[in-house]
Amino acid sequence: MHTTLLQSTDSTNDYIKRNLDRLSPPHLVRAHYQTAGRGRRERGWQSASGLNFLGSFLLEAQKSDQQALMAGALALLDTLAEYGIHASIKLPNDILYKGGKLAGILIENLQGLSRTVMGIGLNVNETFEETQTTSIREWTHRTHDIGALAGRLFRAVLRRFHQPTEKLFPIFKEALDLHSGRVLYRGRVVNVASLTDDFRCVLEDGRVVDCGRLTFERGW
Fold first, then answer.
1. Which of 58, 53, 47 is nearest to 21 (CA)?
2. Least-confidence region, from 34-38, 84-88, 120-124, 163-167
3. At what angle do helices 146-161 and 65-81 cross, to 10 degrees?
4. Cβ neighbour number for residue 127 with a 10 Å cutoff
5. Is 173 strand, coil or helix?
6. How does residue 118 score in pLDDT terms, banded at 50, 70 and 90?
7. What is the distance, to the nearest Å, from the Cα of residue 79 to the centroid of all Cα atoms in its chain?
8. Domain parsing of the chain, residue ranges
9. Cβ pair 100, 68 in contact under 8 A
10. Per CATH, the architecture of 2-185 is what?
11. Which bin fits 41, alpha (ψ -120 to 50), beta or left (φ > 0)?
12. Residue 217 pLDDT
């Protein structure tokens, strides 16, 4: 396990892609501040300097976006549980707690290189006025050492990333149920959006009842 800590960079995902010749997996690159942090579909990710976890993991072996997303989401849930926060997953790539967004995940596969880049933004010590966003600090009522958290998350990412998909999916499904069971779709059959159109998952009565290849469709 190797870690690079930057004062500032445009994006930790992009930093890894520019420096593949000198970074060996598994490697975590994190930054105090990102000038062009981004999430899915190039949406911006704004964060105060030095208050949150902003990092990307360079992982050996290439997995599908969906497999890597499951691993990243479960690693976040594992880590948050160590802080007494039992969060849930909202597709396609968000981690929620009590209705507020705690974290987001961005997966990028490096074709032909057998490498996966897993970017994670996790709100740790920042406080927010709006209720749609939250942080670990807001629920634990104290600040946290981001370096220590990064170590915990790194270990969790490696553990989950190397688990077989057949072991990951039932746990992922249960975490997804925690969110889907309390939203307004209870009692209805809906399509759930995800990173790509490679999955389909049907929710019924707040439970995931049909997940063949998990072909998620747009329209969440």
1. 58
2. 34-38
3. 140
4. 12
5. helix
6. very high
7. 11
8. 2-185
9. no
10. 2-Layer Sandwich (3.30)
11. left
12. 37
Q: Let me know how long the chain is.
A: 220
Give me the mean pLDDT over the 28-44 stretch.
73
Sequence-distant (6+) residues with CB within 8 A of 117 are: 13, 16, 17, 56, 57, 58, 59, 107, 108, 109, 110
Q: List C-alpha distances in Å: 171 to 78, 87, 119, 135, 176.
A: 11, 13, 21, 23, 9
Match 């899915």 to its residue by tokens.
40
> Mean pLDDT over residues 173-184, rounded?
59
Does the reported pTM lie above 0.70? Answer: yes
Residue identified by tokens 């309390």 is: 182
Q: What is the DSSP string of 91-157?
A: TTTEEEETTEEEEEEEEEEETTTTEEEEEEEE--S---SSTTB--HHHHHSS---HHHHHHHHHHHH
